[in-house]
Amino acid sequence: MTEPDRPGGSHEAIIQSARRLFGERGYTAVTIRAIASEAGVSPALVMKVAGSKKQLFALATPSEPTPLAADVPLAGLGEHLVRRMLTRRADDDAEPWLRAVYLLLDAPDQAAARADFRSRFLSRFLESTKGPNADTGRLADELACLLLGLATGLRTFRLLDPRTTDLDRVVEEYGALIQQVIDRLGEPRGGFTPQG
Fold first, then answer.
1. Which segments of 90-155 are extended strands (E)?
2. Residue 2 near residue 40, CB atoms below 8 Å
3. More confident residue, 176 or 57
4. How large is the angle between the packed helices 32-39 and 43-50, nearest 10 degrees?
5. CB 124 within 8 A of CB 68
6. Beta-bridge mates of residue 129
7. What is the separation of C-alpha 82 from the centre of its chain, rounded to a whole number of angstroms?
8. Element (H, E) at 102
9. How far apart (Å, rounded) are the C-alpha atoms in residues 34 and 75?
10. Per-residue model confidence (pLDDT) at position 195
């Protein structure tokens, strides 16, 4: 029995298909027909499950990466973040970092959407030092650029093909680039010390 044939399988297949397509293409580029085709169901069933494309978008895609546990240390976090992104691709899960790009492009108030992105995706890094610091915002933005670039390369451009790429080496090398920024975020500056 295929996933769409099982009880509740159609709903989950629709949500998973919508999650992947919206995450890779954005809201405006995805049609109900494309979601239905991907899920192996009729467009009418997609509408029955979701009610509208807008409601399906809200149902389908997580708004941010699964939060990191508070006790995950900053040391080694670069590799951890890269491995999580590669795992989401391997599992055909939605890529929240890529979805953030499309949310910003489709947002009626881009400044508010950008502030919301920083709050939800970068809060741990913006708060990684005690007290205000002019470098913190810039470094958090650099970190976001690295992660957004990796998400776009993996999903939109389909680079680093897992069939021909040593993914452990990608984790090590790209993780090191990300770790350099994370380490600078965690450094004491101007008398401030990193949070424990």
1. none
2. yes
3. 176
4. 100
5. yes
6. 194
7. 11
8. helix 96-106
9. 42
10. 25
**pLDDT tens digits for range 104-138:** 887 778 898 888 888 888 888 887 554 556 688 89
Quote the CA–CA distance of 63 and 49 in Å, as a whole number: 20
Q: pLDDT tens across 20-65, in order?
A: 888 777 788 899 999 999 999 999 999 999 999 988 987 875 555 6
What is the gyration radius of the CA atoms in the chain, in angstroms? Answer: 19
Partner residues linked to 194 by β-bridges:
129
Query: How high is the pLDDT of residue 3?
Result: 39
Strand-pair partners of 171: none
Where b means 16+ CB within 10 Å and e means fewer, 150-184 reads: bbbebbeeeebeeeeeebeebbeebbeebbebbeb
- Pull the structure tokens for residue 147: 């992660």
On average, the pLDDT of the chain sits at: 82
Check: CB of residue 19 under 8 Å from CB of residue 39: no
Question: How many beta carbons lie within 10 A of that of residue 112, not counting itself?
Answer: 10
Can you give the pLDDT at residue 63? 54
- Closest by CA to 68, choosing from 94, 93, 96, 89, is 96
Q: Are 61 and 18 in contact (CB under 8 A)?
A: yes
CA distance 130 to 125: 11
CB 76 within 8 Å of CB 179: yes
Identify the CA nearest to 122 among candidates 108, 139, 105.
139
